Amino acid sequence: MDFEPYRGELVAYCYRMLGSFHEAEDLVQDTMLRAWKARDRYDPSRASVRTWLYRIATNVCLTALEGRARRPLPSGLGAPGEDPGTPLTLATDIPWLQPFPDARYDMEARADMRLALVVALQRLPARQRAVLVLREVLQFSAAEVADQLDTTVPAVNSTLQRARAALTDVGDDDAIAEPDDPEAREVVDRYLRAFEAADVPGLVRLLADAVVLEMPPVPLWFRGTGHYGAFMRRVFQLRGTDWALRPLAANGQPALAAYAAAPDGDRWLHSLQVFTVAGGRITRNVVFTDPQVLDTLDLPQRFSAN
């Protein structure tokens, strides 16, 4: 029995459940180990290997989620900041939502991996989360999900209805551009050029009026082009204007890896910026600076500016 072809989609599933890429990889490894140990008990007349693996992964995830707090982004914890000069104090005690690095696994569709949806999923009780992803995203039948959760079809349908009702405010994914959408790519490329030129007015021209900027593990976040521009001026004052950015994708969204200049003359990996682009404007930028997150990108930590 070869389980490896299912690893990528199982990691994506566990990520949606946990909101942590690192934990998702660990839980899938645990799933594979359990499946290998139980392979003699697998009954192909009851379920396909894929369905059987999801049953194991679901139980592993539900166990891992027992007693866990949800993983938020800063915008889910309070009102936006009003002073771009506020000290950037890290909140390392909060289990922040992590991004999903697209390059790590080859999957066809990633629209259901968007940060907004993954954040919203974290608000659901664990079993509602599982039912919604298994039914709506992965397209398992109600009977298959009932078997995976050791429950009944009516219970699955009822749980799905409650989960749908709880996520009515997630928004319209159709309005959000894909990473390879030419217009979205052009917007992010222009952002890259303006950032490398330390051109704050140029950055602001690419933003929607109600743009959101958030920076986990800093709990502070801002809304609006005025605060965004003021904060970026502060960034360039504090960290200098010698930056290099590299395009990539995360959570099915366009992203940039940012390298900041250091006193030794090299540029060091500073952050991952994940963009939401809609209507030809950037509506949200989530800037991840946690070293553990940056390690998942499989990018060099530094490179010489010479």
SS field, number of helical segments? 11
Strand percentage lies at 15-25%
Number of DSSP-assigned strands: 7
What's the rounded overall pLDDT mean?
Answer: 92
> Helical residue percent?
40-55%
Class from secondary-structure proportions: alpha+beta
- Tell me about the largest β-sheet: 7 strands, mixed
Residue windows where pLDDT falls under 50 for at least 5 positions: none
- What Rg do the Cα atoms give? 21 Å
Order of helices and strands: HHHHHHHHHEEHEEEEHE
Shape: elongated
Span from first to last CA?
A: 50 Å
Protein model, in words:
The chain has helices spanning 7-18, 21-37, 49-65, 115-121, 126-137, 142-148, 153-166, 182-196, 200-204, 225-239, 291-295; strands spanning 207-215, 218-223, 243-250, 253-261, 266-278, 281-288, 302-304. By secondary structure, the protein is α+β, with helices and mostly antiparallel strands. Helix 2 packs across helix 3, helix 3 packs across helix 6 and helix 5 packs across helix 7. The longest helix is centred in the first third of the chain and has 17 residues, at 21-37. The protein is elongated. The mean pLDDT is 92.
